[in-house]
Amino acid sequence: METTVFEFGLRSAALFPVLGLLLFIFVFVKLITMKPRPSSYNWFITYLGVEIFAGIFDFLSVTSANPRDTLTFYLLFQIGNIFSFAPLMGFVFSYTGRTWFIDAFYKRMALFIPPIILTFFLIFTNEVTSHSIEHLFLSGFIWQVWSFPYGPLYEPVYVGFIQFAVILSIVLFTLHGRKVKDPIRKKQSYIFAGALLAQTIFDTSVFVIFPKVVGVPIIPDGMIAVWIMGIVFSFNLMNKKLFTSNPAAYVENIVDAMSEVVIVLNIDYYIETVKGPVKEVLGYSLRDLTGTPLKQIMPMQWDSFVSQTIHGLDTLSITGHEYELVTHKGGLLPVKISASSHKNSDGRVQGYILVVTDLSPIKELLHVEAERNKLAVITESITDLIVAVDFDQKIVLANKAFKNFTNGSDVIGKNISEIMHIDTEGTEIPIKSLIQSGTILKDTIIAQHRRIQLTINAQTILANVTSSAIKEGSKVNMAGIIVMQDLTEEQELEKMKLDFVSMAAHELRTPLTAIRGYVEALREEIQESLSEQQTTFLNRIDSATLQLTGLMENLLSASRIEKGTYNLNIVSTDWVALVNNAIKNHETLAKEAEVTIHFNMPTTTIPQVNVDALRINEVINNLLSNAIKYSPKGKVFINIHYDDIKEMITTSIKDDGQGIPSTALPHMFEKFFRVWGTLEMGSKGTGLGLYIARAIVALHKGTIWVESEGEGKGSVFSFSLPLDLPISDFGKPKPNKSS
Predict the structure, then answer these.
(1) Among 37-46, 321-330, 458-467, 521-530, where is mean pLDDT lowest?
(2) Structural domains counted in the chain
(3) Is the pLDDT of residue 225 over 70?
(4) Mind listing the UniProt keywords for this protein, alphabetically (predicted)?
């Protein structure tokens, strides 16, 4: 059994849609191939595409042999007509200059809301099957909920919606045609309005006047009306050059492609319109600026603008000056404004056209260039050695100081490992440990090495090395920046200082020893004949001499420590006895200061400890004398703790005296450091005692530290030593080269 799907006989009902469809396709192709074309025509091209879609299904509906398929195609035809509303209104708004209706994505999408709602009505009523509202798909549920009355409601809504869009378009085109001065633009506007008016007249005649007023039935085909509009457009396309691009269209395309903002002012300096990337540059929308006085976004330099730019047009057609405009966010944007005046045929100025160029990228580039030049000058003038390497460890930058070490040779592009080597305590530091290995989120210091051996081009120096990386390094192929501080001169000065201190201490030791000897001799010879005052003077001389002798010994010890000649004589020592002897030696000092010393004897047996007893006794004496000195009329507690697992012995000396400020704690063992304030008052120390104590403990491979909760809360000095240091051969001093 054969089934007929389509009947393509020569029928007027099928002929009209075909002719209209062909005409629309012709206009569509003409427009799509036109270069250049105004941006508003893209909306019209979209409108034609939707109408072509509707025309195809109109043709299929009238040629289909199956009633059900006919109704389906007719439904799609109506949906196409409904959705033509959005591009038609977009074209009208764009063409007539009302772009604020469609200047944002959400506004453009809003044009599709009415067609979607109407399509919903179309599908959920029986318009699909019978053109009658009396029978509903959903048993009347939707209409009842929304309180819509039963009856032939859909067709008036559908026709009214289409006619509303057409009539609104006619009004806007007509108003635009009356307003615009360009004759081609005026002609285009009136032709658009006329074509749409012809469609409206035809629709009204076909659907209302003839069938219901006159009583003469006409083929109720909406595509015929569209076909008439297609004839009007096609006729003008071929004979009236409807879509010929006039100069304004070319200018519009050029301006749209420009990176500059074009502002059109009237004679009173109010903004008539704005073209170009105004949103991106200034942050304003077209609606924000239209009708706004230019002075509002140029308040600080308005007088200068009028005198330089506007008045400058009297002698020049175009002027260019730099100003600052206020952005939408309130900031100031540097711009260059070029201007020209718009005059009528009588030569009278009717307005001004400003071309605004954003200078911020140029200003930023100039700033970057200035910073780069400044950095280059600073880098070249720095005496430290600076070198930058890429991720292949090749040198990309080197300052003058670094090049001097390579005899001025060009090192750019060479592998840094071939030129430079870094060693610390005999172990080479690989260059790759000084550069970044991946992406970093912020500028980072990668490595720091102090007082290490640096060899560059066969020259070895003592140096501090710091390497860092910038967060943009992976983008500019810079893996690390290495800064090397040459300590050669500092090392020589330090050696000279140590030699001088050592010599001065030795030279002062002899007369001080003689003074003490003469004081002792005087005491023995004339002790009985001296008055009380003379005895006091003699005791003060002896005390001052003893203090100076201690100072000289400290200076000599510090000098030997820094030279690396402070040697140890390690012997097996009874630790408890060593601490006990130190306490007995300080009993007189404690009694004078009214300080009570509490020695908490360990409950377990303490094994022998391998130390230099003389040096360690110096450490204990220093800590104990400080505790007594800074805890007048107080208490001092001495504790010994033995860790048999780690084989370490820890000795702590705690006082309840003046305490130490938290800011001073990190510096307590630095050379010549003294706490400023209460602790310094009455103190006769040199700031070397704790420095020497730390050095002695370090030479024993131990650690020393201090704890204090703050001023007035006492302090605790502790040090830990290993038990099993190697004993010196035959009791001779064992040189230690550490410093």
Answers:
(1) 37-46
(2) 5
(3) no
(4) Kinase, Membrane, Phosphoprotein, Transferase, Transmembrane, Transmembrane helix, Two-component regulatory system
